[in-house]
């Protein structure tokens, strides 16, 4: 069956299209909440799938600017994807993904990115795993740092209201150099990061904001909650770090010193951390971090030529990639990367790969050599993977997205 998929045009349609995923969250239909959400997700960026006049599925795309190696790229930030249980496995998602990717391409956004609820869903639509995140649980008795406190560092608690002015500049400095991070608007900060509705506290206390300064200048911040608990007279609760970002090594160390030193916790928990987190080198007992790695962003090159040209190239090439793309066949073919740009070519390819594997390498999270070793990229000329890696590898840190959208 061909489903009628189109952008929502009014709040009623918007709330019903978002309602497909809200069903699984167990949320009530709420026009006021939808109105707030529409401040960050414009109505025309929310697709609904219609069965007659009823909406049975939805898929949205935030208009993001995403940091990639060497700059930022317009990106469809795919979100609130859902199909009602009454209409599963009848091609509704497939129809929505097609309409959405075509819309993203027509808007001139060369890439799309998302967090996947299940890792099996999006590869068929051309997405590739592009970054990891780490989750840690650090017992208080092992939370000491190797280096002494910095004399010019100080920390203070600020209100969420004060955070609106003090925190975004720090985020922006880190974002500018970290592939995988996206620009947050004022509305995004207010609605998402610095809001604290009781229903999102997950058994914890209020959201706290902490600012770290070096010589009086804000250089790091953390948002965190106490999950207070005592057992047999001893602290058994934890501090949950929601987001902790700092600009530079000293700022990072002093920010985490305050978090790790807190009383009334048996452990500190943090997820959505970069997997090359400096703490691994700053802690006295790094093994005790017990970092568990999971998938982060999935990236889809929607317009392969534009996407490849938009990202920095570490070497001049040339290298020729034979790209397969069954879902958006206009991307398929040979692409020659040379002198910082990508163009179609008839030259013999160095590597053959699916567009999803290109998504995996796009932010610098994985190398072509790794993917050849995994048997998911084919090396057609000797040294092809090394040549492609020389073009793709830059000095950027590992890609990291600190927030699930
Ligand atoms: C995941 C979800 C959106 C899939 O929607 P759907 O309309 O059933 O998907 P489609 O019918 O278009 O399926 C397309 C293909 O993907 C497969 N697929 C889709 N979701 C899958 C899943 N969770 N596990 C395994 N396979 C899946 C289908 O079997 C189908 O394969 P086929 O083409 O070989 O037959 C829907 O089940 C849902 O809303 N789940 C709960 C919410 C959720 O996880 N949303 C995603 C948020 S990131």
Description of the structure:
By secondary structure, the chain is of the alpha+beta class. The chain is built from 12 helices and 21 strands. The strands form 4 sheets. It has a 7-stranded mixed sheet. The longest helix is centred in the first third of the chain and has 15 residues, at 11-25. It is globular. The model has no long low-confidence stretch (mean pLDDT 97). It binds coenzyme A. Coenzyme A binds at residues 21, 24, 81-83, 88-94, 116-118, 120-121, 124.
Q: How large is the radius of gyration? A: 23 Å
Strand content: 25-35%
Strand order in the largest sheet: 1-2-3-4-5-16-6
Quick one: how many beta strands? 21
Main sheet overview: 7 strands, mixed
Overall body shape: globular
Mean pLDDT: 97
Number of helices: 12
Q: Helix proportion of residues, in percent? A: 25-40%
Structural class: alpha+beta
- Ligand inventory: coenzyme A
**In terms of per-residue confidence, which ranges show pLDDT below 50 for 5 or more consecutive residues?**
none
Distance between the termini: 30 Å
Key attributes of the depicted protein:
binds coenzyme A, 26% helix, alpha+beta, 21 strands, 12 helices, 405 residues, single chain, 7-stranded mixed β-sheet
Condensed summary:
This protein is of the alpha+beta class and 405 residues long. The protein has twelve helices and 21 strands.
């Amino acid at each position: 069956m061909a489903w009628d998929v189109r952008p929502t045009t009014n709040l009623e349609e918007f709330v019903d299209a978002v309602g497909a995923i809200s069903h699984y969250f167990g949320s009530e239909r709420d026009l006021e909440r939808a109105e707030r959400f529409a401040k960050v997700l414009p109505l025309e960026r929310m697709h609904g799938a219609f069965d007659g006049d009823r909406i049975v599925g939805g898929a949205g795309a935030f208009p993001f600017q995403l940091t990639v190696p060497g700059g930022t790229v317009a990106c469809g930030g795919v979100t609130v994807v859902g199909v009602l249980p009454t209409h599963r496995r009848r091609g509704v998602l497939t129809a929505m993904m097609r309409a959405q990717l075509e819309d993203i391409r027509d808007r001139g956004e060369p890439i799309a990115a998302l967090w996947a609820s299940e890792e099996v869903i999006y590869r068929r639509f051309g997405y590739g795993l592009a970054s990891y995140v780490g989750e840690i649980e650090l017992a208080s008795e092992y939370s000491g740092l190797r280096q002494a406190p910095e004399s010019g560092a100080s920390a203070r608690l600020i209100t969420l209201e004060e955070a609106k002015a003090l925190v975004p500049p720090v985020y922006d400095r880190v974002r500018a150099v970290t592939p995988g991070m996206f620009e947050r608007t004022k509305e995004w900060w207010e609605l998402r990061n610095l809001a604290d509705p009781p229903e999102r506290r997950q058994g914890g206390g209020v959201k706290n904001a902490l600012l770290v300064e070096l010589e009086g200048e804000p250089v790091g911040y953390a948002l965190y909650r106490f999950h207070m608990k005592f057992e047999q007279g001893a602290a058994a609760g934890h501090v949950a770090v929601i987001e902790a970002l700092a600009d530079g090594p000293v700022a990072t160390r002093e920010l985490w010193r305050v978090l790790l030193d807190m009383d009334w916790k048996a452990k500190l928990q943090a997820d959505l951390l970069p997997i090359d987190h400096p703490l691994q080198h700053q802690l006295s007992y790094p093994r005790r971090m017990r970092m568990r790695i999971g998938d982060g962003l999935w990236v889809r090159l929607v317009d392969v030529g534009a996407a490849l040209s938009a990202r920095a190239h570490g070497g001049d090439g040339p290298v020729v990639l034979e790209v397969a793309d069954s879902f958006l066949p206009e991307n398929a073919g040979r692409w020659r990367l040379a002198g910082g740009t990508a163009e179609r070519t008839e030259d013999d390819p160095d590597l053959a790969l699916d567009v999803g594997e290109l998504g995996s390498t796009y932010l610098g999270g994985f190398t072509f050599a790794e993917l050849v070793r995994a048997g998911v990229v084919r090396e057609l000329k000797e040294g092809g993977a090394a040549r492609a890696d020389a073009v793709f590898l830059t000095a950027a840190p590992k890609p990291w997205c600190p927030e699930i959208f």
